[in-house]
C-alpha cells in the first residue's frame, strides 16, 4: 500500500513535533516544517520512525510563504495527503496596558500567522490536490485551534479571535471541500506544556493550571498529537466539520 504523506506546520517543537512523530509512527512520510529553527526541525526529523521524511521551512504569515511551503513539501514527498495547520503564535496584549502601536502590530502579526497562514496553505493544497493524477479524494486537513476560542483570552484577544476564526474556517471548508472527498477538522486544546505556554507556568500558576482539569495534570504535546493523528486517517471522514475539544474536561461547552 502507498504510504500517505503529511505536512505538519510548526513541527520543530511542542505540539507539532509530537504530531510529526505520531504520524510517522502511523506510517506516514512526514514533512516537518518550521519558520526559522531548522536545527530543531532537523533534530525532530532525524528522530522520526521510518524513512522518506522531509524538512520544509518558511514563514506562514507572509505573502508567498504558504505557496513555497506547499511547493517544497510536494517536491520532496511527491504529494501531500494530510495538512496539519499547527504553526501558531501567542501575543500578550492586555488592552488597558498595551500601546496602540503594539496593539496594532500584534493584531496584524497574529492574524497573519494564525489565520491567513492556514487559509493560504489550504488554498495551495487544494490547488495541488485538484491537479494530482489521483485527485483530492481521501485528503485530510486538521487545524489546531484552541480552547481559548470558547473560554476567552482576556490578555491575548487576537489569539482568541484568530482561533475562533480558525474553527469557523474549518467548518466552512468542511462543507465546501466535502464534494471533493476532503475532510476538514480541528482540535481545540486546552493548556499544553510547550515553549509557547511555559511563561504562563511560573509560581502558583502551574498548580492553578493543573487544577483546571479534573484529571489533575497538565497536558503533554502527545495528548493533542493522538487526536490529530486519528483525525488525519482515512477512517475519520465522517468527523468532517468537527472541532474536537482536547482539554481534559477543563472547559465543557
Ligand atoms: N501550548 C498550548 O497551551 C496550546 C494550547 C492550545 C492551542 N495551542 C496551539 O497549538 C499550536 C502549537 O503550539 P505550541 O505550544 O506547540 O507552540 P510552540 O512550542 O511555540 O511552537 C510553535 C511552532 O510554530 C512555528 N511557527 C511559529 N511562527 C511561525 C510562522 N510565522 N511561520 C511558520 N512557523 C511558525 C515554530 O517554528 P520556529 O521554531 O521555527 O519558530 C514552531 O515550530 C499553535 O497553533 C498553538 O496556538 C497551543
UniProtKB/TrEMBL annotation:
InterPro entries referenced in this protein's UniProt entry, alphabetically: NAD(P)-bd_dom_sf, Sc_DH/Rdtase_CS, SDR_fam
Similarity section: Belongs to the short-chain dehydrogenases/reductases (SDR) family.
Organism of origin: Streptomyces purpurascens
Swiss-Prot/TrEMBL keywords: Oxidoreductase
Pfam families for this protein: adh_short_C2 (PF13561)
Oxidoreductase is among the record's keywords: yes
SUPFAM superfamilies: NAD(P)-binding Rossmann-fold domains
CDD domains hit by this protein: SDR_c
Name of protein: SDR family oxidoreductase
Amino acid at each position: 500500500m502507498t504510504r500517505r504523506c503529511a505536512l505538519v506546520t510548526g513541527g520543530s517543537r511542542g505540539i507539532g513535533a509530537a504530531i510529526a512523530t505520531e504520524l510517522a509512527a502511523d506510517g506516514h512520510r512526514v514533512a516537518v516544517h518550521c519558520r526559522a529553527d531548522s536545527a530543531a526541525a532537523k533534530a525532530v526529523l532525524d528522530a522520526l520512525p521510518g524513512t522518506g521524511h522531509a524538512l520544509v521551512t518558511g514563514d506562514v504569515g507572509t505573502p508567498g510563504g504558504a505557496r513555497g511551503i506547499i511547493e517544497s513539501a510536494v517536491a520532496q514527498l511527491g504529494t501531500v495527503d494530510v495538512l496539519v495547520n499547527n504553526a501558531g503564535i501567542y501575543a500578550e496584549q492586555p488592552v488597558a496596558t498595551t500601546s496602540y502601536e503594539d496593539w496594532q502590530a500584534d493584531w496584524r502579526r497574529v492574524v497573519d500567522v494564525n489565520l491567513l497562514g492556514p487559509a493560504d496553505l489550504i488554498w495551495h493544497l487544494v490547488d495541488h490536490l485538484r491537479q494530482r493524477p489521483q485527485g483530492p479524494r481521501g485528503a485530510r486537513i486538521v487545524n489546531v485551534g484552541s480552547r481559548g476560542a470558547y473560554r476567552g483570552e482576556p490578555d491575548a484577544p487576537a489569539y482568541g479571535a484568530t482561533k475562533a476564526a480558525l474553527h469557523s474556517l474549518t467548518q466552512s471548508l468542511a462543507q465546501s471541500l466535502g464534494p471533493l472527498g476532503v475532510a476538514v477538522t480541528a482540535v481545540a486544546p486546552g493548556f499544553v506544556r510547550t515553549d509557547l505556554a511555559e511563561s504562563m507556568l511560573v509560581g502558583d500558576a502551574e498548580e492553578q493550571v493543573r487544577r483546571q482539569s479534573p484529571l489533575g495534570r497538565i497536558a503533554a504535546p502527545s495528548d493533542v498529537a493522538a487526536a490529530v493523528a486519528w483525525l488525519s486517517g482515512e477512517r475519520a471522514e465522517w468527523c468532517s466539520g468537527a472541532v474536537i475539544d482536547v482539554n481534559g474536561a477543563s472547559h465543557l461547552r
